[in-house]
TrEMBL record:
InterPro entries tied to this protein: AlkB-like, AlkB-like_sf, ALKBH3, Oxoglu/Fe-dep_dioxygenase_dom, Znf_GRF
Keywords, ordered alphabetically: Metal-binding, Zinc, Zinc-finger
Organism: Purpureocillium lilacinum
Name of the molecule in the record: GRF zinc finger domain-containing protein
Bias type Basic and acidic residues, positions: 295-306
Domain GRF-type: 386-431
Biased composition (Basic residues): 103-112
Gene Ontology process terms (BP): DNA alkylation repair
């Protein structure tokens, strides 16, 4: 008995050390940390345990570990998921005047790093895009995917000339229009990268079935964007006031993690200024990266009559992080709407991925459909032709501050391997609704 009473007492387990920043991080970030440490636990349970431990991530994690050890037969889920928005982990918004409640940290892109966005509200706030997850009924999405995977077997890479080198796109693509007449017009009248397309296809049954659904969703998102994001709740200058009606679609196929497309803006030649594009992603999830393009020259004066977005561009110029990359994660069956400010002021790309999670239907392939509204007023019969005799390409000044946002027509025949272009250049003029105004007078012979 004496030996028992005099036996040294066993030391108590040390209290868990608090995680750095435990007291400073908002609740949603703490929950995200807990979720990464304990992926098999649902968010409601994580929130309850976090609140029970006064917001301490370390103490909540320790409690969860004890619970997991108490259930040795339990197994973690083997299902591969994708990261959701941090907003789902957040507490309800605090009542006004409650300064002690945690608030969501403002997201911001940084030069030299990539800001990853998953939540539709974050995408709409920080980029010129909106995204809709689970866009189509699952069976419709899979039917469309299967149909286009079959079509993609005969897709080809696009070959063009870049800086005197002949290059080909790092993915394959196909072009679809609504009717046989449209197919013939495309082959006879339209030019892409200085040459005519030879592979123009009739829209497939599933593409036709999905088109009105895309059209309705895009028009709804455009009106919401105008109402909530644009100055005065009005459309941008040069943006068409008419409903967006898709009548063509480029379909791209990316096979494997390394097939990609570099930084670019989509051509406006047949879409007109301030174009809207609806992009459906199917199959493997990939990152869609965007970044602002700001003038780089030292001239501090800007042409106030240019097509740029004025004060927002000036504010971005003063921010050293304004051109930081933003990554929008595009899961299977999502619709991304690229709004009217996208092509003029931003560039986008699909970057090579370190690895990908195979899709049960597509395997390692991603199918991307970009629905477009080809406007009749931008038919090649109406637009300027260069001295090479082909319709000009429509571009916008993105790098020189003096003419930032101004549009121009120029020759693009030199994009074709083995061909030389001419020096044709002409400033483009539009009315407020983006309709072209032609006076037949060519401007300077050198691009801006």
């Amino acid at each position: 008995m004496k030996s028992f009473l005099t036996k040294p007492k066993r030391k108590l387990s040390p209290a868990p050390e608090p995680c750095p920043g435990d007291a400073d991080e908002p609740t949603e970030v703490k929950l995200a940390l807990l979720s990464s440490l304990h992926p098999a636990v649902d968010q409601e349970t994580l929130l309850d345990i976090l609140l029970a431990h006064d917001g301490s991530v370390s103490q909540a994690s320790t409690a969860l570990q004890h619970q997991e050890h108490a259930r040795p037969g339990s197994k973690k889920s083997g299902v591969i998921g994708y990261q959701q928005s941090l907003k789902q982990y957040a507490l309800p918004p605090p009542p006004s005047g409650d300064a002690t409640s945690p608030t969501k940290k403002k997201l911001k892109s940084k030069r030299g790093s990539t800001l990853h966005l998953y939540d539709p509200a974050d995408v709409a706030e920080h980029t010129p895009c909106t995204i809709i997850h689970n866009f189509l009924p699952p069976e419709d999405a899979n039917d469309l995917l299967r149909e286009l995977l079959d079509e993609a077997e005969s897709f080809e890479k696009i070959t063009f000339k870049l800086f005197d080198n002949v290059v080909s796109s790092p993915h394959t693509s196909g072009f679809f229009v609504e009717s046989y007449e449209a197919m013939q017009q495309q082959k006879a009248d339209y030019y892409y990268n200085g040459a005519k397309l030879t592979d123009v296809r009739r829209i497939t049954p599933q593409l036709a079935k999905v088109k009105p659904v895309v059209q309705e969703a895009v028009n709804r998102e455009v009106q919401q964007r105008i109402k909530t994001r644009y100055p005065g709740g009005k459309k941008l200058k040069y943006q068409s006031p008419h409903a967006w009606v898709p009548n063509s679609a480029f379909v791209n196929c990316y096979k494997g993690a390394q097939e990609s497309v570099g930084w670019h803006s989509d051509q406006l030649t047949y879409l007109g200024p301030r174009a809207v594009i609806g992009s459906v992603s199917l199959g493997v999830a990939r990152e869609f990266r965007v970044r602002r393009v700001l003038p780089k020259d030292k001239d501090k004066d800007r042409d106030k009559d240019g097509g740029g977005s004025g004060s927002s561009v000036k504010a971005a110029e003063d921010d050293p992080d304004a051109e930081g990359q933003i990554s929008i994660h595009l899961p299977h069956n999502s619709l991304l709407v690229m709004h009217a400010e996208m092509q003029e002021e931003w560039k986008h790309c699909i970057a090579p991925a370190p690895s990908i999670d195979p899709h049960p239907v597509a395997g390692v392939r991603r199918i991307n459909i970009t629905y477009r509204d080809y406007r009749q007023r931008f038919h090649p019969r109406h637009t300027p032709r260069c001295r090479c005799g082909i319709p000009c390409v429509l571009r916008v000044v993105q790098r020189k501050r003096e003419n930032y946002g101004r549009y121009f027509w120029m020759c693009h025949a030199s994009n074709v391997p083995g061909k030389e272009g001419c020096s044709f250049f002409q400033w483009a003029e539009f009315d407020d609704d983006g309709n072209p105004i032609f006076d037949g007078n060519a401007g300077p012979k050198q691009p801006p």
